[in-house]
């Protein structure tokens, strides 16, 4: 491999699920250069490309489809905050999560849709149809959260979304 291709591969090995723009910023490379090397790495089965939740994420091949989806979700700060809250407080109602994190209900539901889709959270309903949120695999979820830290741009986008949602609902 070339020096730049090695850099891209090594970066993705330690930062799984990074999306294209984050990759170009982190490595300070031109987008065309990154595209070229990503295509080469994909043809050599050195990396996997996954289109999830409006972004293209890149991984080394040791991550299976389920892990790739989960990593893409927890790269978002709000989804991480929801998981941290549920891990710390245990089973909780959506209302308590909204209040504790000071987010709009629509923001919670958007992230919950993806967390549920990736089996990171389960919505349990009681006989009165009240919902309780549960992390079904806490040990695996904690391991995943330790492995993934969202980028500054990801955190800023999430915070902007929270602000807009709070203004709309306010």
Automatic annotation (TrEMBL):
The keyword Metal-binding appears for this protein: no
SUPFAM superfamilies: Winged helix' DNA-binding domain
Cleavable signal peptide: none
Entry keyword annotation includes Amino-acid biosynthesis: no
Annotated Pfam families: HTH_20, HTH_HVO_0163_N
Keywords: Plasmid
Highest taxon listed in the record's lineage: Archaea
Domain HVO-0163 N-terminal HTH: start-end pairs: 2-71
PANTHER family: HTH ARSR-TYPE DOMAIN-CONTAINING PROTEIN, TRANSCRIPTIONAL REGULATOR, TRMB
Stated name of the protein: Winged helix-turn-helix transcriptional regulator
Organism the protein comes from: Halobaculum magnesiiphilum
Lineage per the UniProt record: Archaea, Methanobacteriati, Methanobacteriota, Stenosarchaea group, Halobacteria
């Amino acid at each position: 491999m070339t020096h730049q291709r090695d850099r891209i591969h090594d970066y993705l090995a330690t930062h799984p699920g990074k999306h294209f723009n984050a990759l170009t910023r982190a490595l300070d490379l031109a987008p065309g250069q990154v595209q070229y090397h990503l295509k080469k790495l994909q043809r050599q089965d050195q990396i996997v490309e996954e289109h999830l939740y409006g972004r293209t994420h890149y991984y080394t091949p040791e991550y299976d489809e389920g892990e790739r989806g989960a990593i893409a979700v927890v790269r978002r700060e709000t989804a991480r905050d929801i998981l941290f809250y549920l891990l710390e407080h245990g089973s909780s109602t959506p209302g308590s999560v909204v209040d504790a994190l000071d987010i709009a209900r629509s923001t919670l539901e958007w992230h919950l849709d993806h967390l549920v889709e990736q089996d990171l959270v389960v919505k349990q309903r009681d006989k009165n149809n009240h919902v309780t949120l549960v992390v079904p695999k806490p040990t695996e979820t904690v391991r995943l959260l330790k492995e993934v830290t969202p980028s500054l741009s990801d955190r800023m986008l999430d915070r902007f979304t929270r602000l807009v949602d709070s203004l709309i609902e306010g």
